[in-house]
TrEMBL record:
Belongs to the D-lyxose ketol-isomerase family. Pfam families: Lyx_isomer. One of its GO terms (cellular component) is periplasmic space. Keywords: Carbohydrate metabolism, Isomerase, Manganese, Metal-binding, Signal. Gene3D superfamilies: Jelly Rolls (2.60.120.10), Periplasmic binding protein-like II (3.40.190.10). It comes from the Bacteria. This is D-lyxose ketol-isomerase. It comes from Roseivivax lentus. It catalyses: D-lyxose = D-xylulose. The keyword Zinc does not apply.
């Protein structure tokens, strides 16, 4: 090998070493949020690009996210710097495997969320990051068919059914849309809205007489629901196409419709039932695993994420950044709902089996 070749080889080796070093210097942001390609790209280019050391943003489904985290914990060493996930994800993790975040200077406006983020300990285990909920939305053309005396901001389920029936009769086709597809968030409607609004609970009231009434009401609503709803997942698509005029979904799954045609649609709360107006809040947070290779850089990234920046650009493009729920309970601490008249939360884990049974069997009930 001549001198020129040796120099070229050495230069390439140095370049490779520098490349590896640079890659290692990036903070690995392991997240369950902003998973779709366009959202992940927006996170990298609009939100995280301003962080000096660099960020390797890797969104994953819940399963792979937890599997890698557990593997690194068992190995006692890891490469994940920052975790991004929902309260439900974090509540399944041993708080001892996370770094206390009390030292991060952040003002958390909600005492409820600050309490949840402690995961039963005396210090913050994750930093509240994003919050949203589920709402109703409608094409403004549907407003002409509201029942007499109905207030769109204070609808009951009976009024919603009458409204959907009026549209169905006038237009000759059912125009209520429901995210009942394989990837739709239908279960959150039953778990956080329909059941608590009629039964003041979910698990402990699963087989109650009030639950029967709730299902009967939903069965009435289904008669005026677009039958293609069993394929729907993101109701913004049906609003924009006109396949549905009245819909229920997560705020982020409606955002595109309002971003593209803000003058054509109106948003409003989900209906109330005999027990109140049930609803489900959504909370995502950021945490640092004890196995993080550089905890100082990880803390710096979380602090960066809490600063005002280019989030407005991301919210305008992101379509599914806030997907997931925080487990909550009502005032008697026996269930996993939050009703509007009650302002108390607790970190009691929900029993999901009855709810999953409820969701898997709903199609049979409606048949």
């Amino acid at each position: 090998m001549n001198l020129k070749s040796k120099l070229a080889f050495a230069a390439s080796g140095i370049a490779l070493l520098c490349s590896v070093t640079a890659a290692q210097a990036e903070v690995l942001f392991w997240s369950t949020q902003a998973r779709p390609a366009e959202e992940a790209q927006a996170m990298r280019q609009q939100v995280l690009s301003g962080f000096g050391p660099g960020v390797d943003y890797q969104p994953n489904e819940d399963g792979p996210w937890l599997t890698r985290l557990q593997a690194e914990d068992q190995a006692g060493t890891g490469s994940i710097g920052v975790l991004g996930a929902l309260h439900g994800n974090f509540s399944a993790i041993d708080p001892d495997t996370l770094v206390d975040l009390d030292g991060i200077d952040a003002s958390i406006s909600s005492e409820t969320f600050a309490s949840l983020a402690k995961l039963g300990t005396d210090s913050l285990q994750y930093m509240p990051w994003m919050q949203a909920s589920y709402i109703m939305a409608a094409n403004k053309e549907a407003l002409a068919y509201l029942p007499d005396g109905a207030d769109i901001d204070a609808l009951t389920y009976d009024q919603l059914i009458a409204w959907a029936a009026n549209v169905h009769e006038a237009e000759g086709t059912p125009k209520f849309g429901f995210p009942a597809g394989p990837k739709g968030l239908k279960h959150r409607f039953f778990q956080g809205y329909l059941y608590p609004s009629y039964t003041n609970g979910v698990v402990r009231t699963f087989a109650s007489a009030e639950a029967v009434t709730a299902w009967e009401k939903f069965r009435e609503l289904w008669q005026h629901t677009n039958p293609a709803s069993t394929n729907f997942a993101f109701m913004q698509e049906q609003l924009l196409s006109g396949d549905a005029w009245i819909v229920f979904d997560h705020t982020s799954r409606l955002a595109q419709a309002f971003n593209e045609r803000p003058d054509d649609f109106v948003a409003f709360p989900a209906p109330a039932g005999p027990a109140g107006r049930g609803f489900m809040p959504v909370l995502a947070g950021m945490a640092i695993p004890e196995t993080a290779p550089d905890k100082d850089e990880a803390r710096a990234l979380i602090e960066y994420m809490l600063m005002p920046g280019d989030w407005h650009a991301f919210w305008g493009e992101g379509g599914d950044v806030l997907v997931g729920e925080v487990s909550t309970v009502n005032d008697d601490e026996t269930d996993n709902i939050f009703r509007e008249p009650i302002g108390r939360f607790a970190t009691i884990e929900e029993d999901k089996d009855p709810v999953h049974l409820l969701v898997s069997d709903y199609a049979t009930w409606l048949a």
